[in-house]
Write a structure and sequence with these properties.
The chain is of the alpha/beta class. It folds into four domains: 130 residues, Beta-Lactamase; 186 residues, Heat Shock Protein 90, CATH 3.30.565; 120 residues, Response regulator (Rossmann fold, 3-Layer(aba) Sandwich), CATH 3.40.50.2300; 113 residues, Four Helix Bundle (Hemerythrin (Met), subunit A) (Up-down Bundle), CATH 1.20.120. It contains 23 helices and 17 strands. The strands form three sheets. Strands 6, 7, 8, 9, 10, 11 and 12 form a seven-stranded mixed β-sheet that branches. Strands 2-1-5-4-3 form a five-stranded antiparallel β-sheet. Strands 14-13-15-16-17 form a five-stranded parallel β-sheet, sandwiched between helices. A hairpin with a 5-residue loop joins β11 and β12. It is elongated, with a radius of gyration of 53 Å. It starts with 9 loop residues before the first helix and ends with a helix. It catalyses: ATP + protein L-histidine = ADP + protein N-phospho-L-histidine. It is found in: Cell membrane. It is a multi-pass membrane protein. Pfam families: HATPase_c, HisKA, Hpt, Response_reg. Its EC number is 2.7.13.3.
């Protein structure tokens, strides 16, 4: 997980600032690119608009010129001589009146006139100007500035617009159209209409300005959008930073809470361990009746404290999303029977009847998490007994639905207890929720049990609820979709598991198991206890002596390392929370020293922390096994039997290892390569064997067991080879049940064979 423990960390701030600067640069690059694109598009659009405007103006002027040309009397033109003689003649005056009328209609026209080519000279026939005007052109006066295009119209008669052009009268745009003889089609004159270029240019400029305005408007919108995006990006960065800071604060609180929970677990479990250990030892002495009552009270108080601690730790796991559920095959009816047996005494003590009813439609074997289901039901039934003073508590299991893959089961816990008010039911599954008033003082608890149960049921994919009436009892119910166990896996389960009305011991809390039997016989040897708490030291010393062992004590990590180097211990119990040097660091030092000598002493971690990742850290440090406090004599016995059953050297054929060493030396190799190769292959093949036995696949199990037998014999693991040989024979005979029982011995041997091989090879 990324560490945000310091908001002011320069690396964090620089990276965050660099990201913001990078985003800003991206916006700028896009802004420049889009600006260029809009300007280019605007320029092209404006050019096109100007061109269209000019074409429209030319079309309109040309249309007016052609229309006016058709109105001119060609007969009158033919009567003129195109000289000064025409001035004052009726035809001339008539044509002048027509031109003046045309000019009056076209108010934007400055001049309207008629031209004719005489002896290759362009002369005026008539003019709309007053004769007294300085701009008047008398008939027959030459138009010396006529363009080639104007002369061409007398040849092809094609009307056109010319200009803007400048002449002695100013700058004009002229519309020119031919006047024809309708009969012959001969061009008799050309009519010209002049418009001041200024008016023409105003129209073009207006079009250009409109185009520029549209372009600027688009740019303004784009800039406004850019500003909004930039502002939004900065706001997003501020929100992101705030979220980072909030996440950092949350993670800091979570880490602090985890550290507090670890400390709480270690300290309280250490104290409870001392209390329960001393209680256990005191119980083995001669006690009178009153003293026995005191021992029972001590045990009850310590167990209650441990229950509170377990509730808090479970709640912490759930909040941290570290609680996981399994999906294994288990026998459903024995699990319910086991719950009844465990709580029967509590019910009898209160004069209650505890009844269990199971729907026959529920399969014998289901797939799910039996440990979590048992934890939920223990909580519900315990609560029902606690809050019921008379009557009965009934556990009922019914099959709601079933298909090829899923069995939907509803389990209800019905009591005749005090019942609940509606507002109490609303908050019943909230953490730390308790009934208020006298009941909360009478029935003490953490207020976490039902919240934890609800969370566990949700993790298993189910639902939980309650119906109740004050003074009439309550009905707590859960519905869980269990996996339908396959026929093979169901048939492979031990028949005893289906018939024994108690839950498997490994699924029960340690304090619910049977009383501890007598001490193991002839189990003596040197054992080192590494523990700083004097009470726990005394408890462990007494417990181990009770098992026939001879313990020594080291009070801190450095002392433990020194004693290990100077002594020959067969087993070390190492507390993780030691002064000066913690247990995991001490273990690493011991393992480093052992690497040179080839020795390997089994180290068992003593920890008050039950979180999976913390237990994994113990194993990663080089410890061989883990005991979670409080530790009972039975826990110690199991650990001693596991690790001191026989000396490591007795399970290895040294002559085989010697031959392998000679073979390795001749090939300039090392015997550890052979051992490491064997140990790498061993887990996968063993797991393959285990799966074959669970599936009752005799042929597969026999083949894998044969391979493991040969491999083990080749490396010198003679005792493991013999066990695999026995498994091979049992598999061939089809005796799956006995073969699975033998796998427990194989598992014990598997834990020992690696260190034994390393140690034996080191002694060579």
């Amino acid at each position: 997980m990324e560490n945000f423990s310091n908001r002011n960390d320069p690396i964090f701030l620089n990276s965050f600032g660099a990201r913001g600067e990078h985003n800003l640069n991206n916006y700028r690059r896009w802004l420049i690119a889009i600006t260029l694109l809009i300007l280019t598009a605007g320029w092209l659009g404006m050019t096109l608009a100007v061109k269209l405007t000019e074409e429209e103006l030319r079309s309109k002027l040309l249309l007016r010129a052609e229309t006016a040309a058709t109105m001119i009397s060609y007969e009158r033109i033919e009567q003129l001589t195109a000289t000064a003689v025409d001035s004052g003649s009726p035809s001339y005056e008539y044509l002048r009146e027509q031109l003046i009328a045309t000019r009056a209609v076209n108010t934007d026209c400055r001049f309207v006139y008629l031209l004719k080519v005489v002896d290759k000279r362009m002369v005026f026939l008539a003019d709309s100007e007053l004769t007294t005007s300085a701009d008047y052109s008398p008939p027959g006066s030459e138009y010396s500035e006529a363009s080639d295009a104007l002369r061409q119209i007398f040849i092809d008669g094609k009307a056109f617009v010319e200009g803007p052009l400048s002449d002695e009268w100013g700058t004009w745009v002229s519309g020119l159209a031919a006047v024809r003889d309708p009969a012959s089609g001969q061009i008799v004159a050309v009519l010209g209409m002049d418009i001041a270029a200024r008016d023409w240019q105003v129209a073009v400029t207006s079009t250009r300005l409109i185009g520029m305005g549209i372009t600027l408007a688009i740019l303004m919108v784009m800039y406004a959008l850019f500003y909004a995006l930039q502002t939004s990006a900065k706001a997003t960065e501020r929100v992101y930073l705030a979220e980072k800071q909030a996440k950092e604060a949350l993670e800091s609180v979570s880490r602090a809470k985890s550290q507090f929970m670890a400390y709480l677990s270690h300290e309280i479990r250490a104290s409870v361990n001392g209390i329960l250990g001393l209680r256990e030892l005191l119980e083995t002495t001669l006690l009178d009746r009153q003293q026995q009552d005191y021992v029972v009270a001590i045990d009850y108080s310590a167990r209650s404290l441990l229950t509170v601690l377990n509730d808090v730790l479970d709640f912490s796991k759930i909040e941290a999303n570290k609680m996981v559920v399994e999906n294994v095959d288990f026998a459903f009816r024995p699990l319910l029977a086991g719950i009844k047996k465990m709580l029967q005494a509590a019910a009898i003590n209160k004069g209650l009847e505890l009844v269990t009813t199971v729907d026959q439609n529920i399969p014998q074997i289901l797939g799910g998490d039996p440990a979590r289901l048992q934890q939920v039901l223990l909580n519900l039934v315990s609560n029902a007994i606690k809050f019921t003073d008379a009557g009965r508590v009934e556990i009922k299991a019914a099959c709601l639905s079933q298909d090829a893959s899923t069995v939907q089961v509803k389990i209800t816990v019905d009591d005749t207890g005090i019942g609940l008010e509606p507002d109490e039911m609303d908050k019943m599954f909230q953490p730390f929720a308790q009934a208020e008033g006298a009941n909360s003082r009478k029935y003490m608890g953490t207020g976490l049990g039902l919240s934890i149960s609800a969370s566990l049921v949700k993790l298993m994919g189910g639902d939980i609820g309650v119906t109740s009436h004050k003074g009439e009892g309550s009905v707590f119910w859960i519905t869980i979709p269990f996996r339908s166990a396959t026929s093979n896996s169901a048939s492979c389960l031990d028949e005893a598991m289906l018939s024994t009305p108690v839950a498997p011991a490994e699924q029960l809390p340690a304090w619910l198991t049977q009383p501890i039997a007598s001490a193991a016989e002839n189990q003596a040897g040197n054992v080192l206890i590494v523990e700083d708490n004097p009470v726990i030291q005394q408890v462990l010393i007494s417990q181990l002596r009770h098992l026939g062992l001879t313990p020594e004590v080291a009070g801190n990590g450095p002392e433990a390392v020194q004693k290990t180097l100077n002594g020959e211990y067969k087993l070390i119990f190492m507390d993780c929370g030691l002064p000066l040097l913690d247990g995991m660091a001490a273990t690493r030092l011991i393992r480093d020293k052992e690497a040179a000598s080839g020795r390997h002493v089994a180290i068992i971690a003593l920890t008050g922390r039950s979180l999976p990742d913390e237990l994994q850290q113990c194993l990663a440090a080089g410890m061989d096994d883990v005991l979670v406090k409080p530790v009972s004599v039975q826990d110690l016995r199991q650990m001693v039997e596991r690790w001191l059953r026989e000396d490591f050297s007795e399970c290895i054929d040294r002559s085989v290892l010697k031959e392998l060493k000679q073979l390795a030396d001749s090939g300039q190799s090392h015997i550890d390569l052979f051992i490491d190769s064997y140990l790498e292959e061993l887990p996968s093949l063993t797991e393959k064997l285990r799966n074959a036995l669970l599936a009752c696949d005799a042929a597969q199990a026999s083949a894998v067991a044969h391979s493991l037998k040969s491999m083990s014999a080749t490396i010198g693991a003679i005792r493991l080879s013999n066990l695999f040989g026995d498994l091979e024979q049992l598999s061939k005979n089809g005796n799956c049940v006995e073969a699975r029982t033998l796998m427990a011995k194989v598992d014990t041997e598997l834990r020992q064979v690696g260190p034994a091989l390393k140690r034996a090879a080191g002694l060579l």
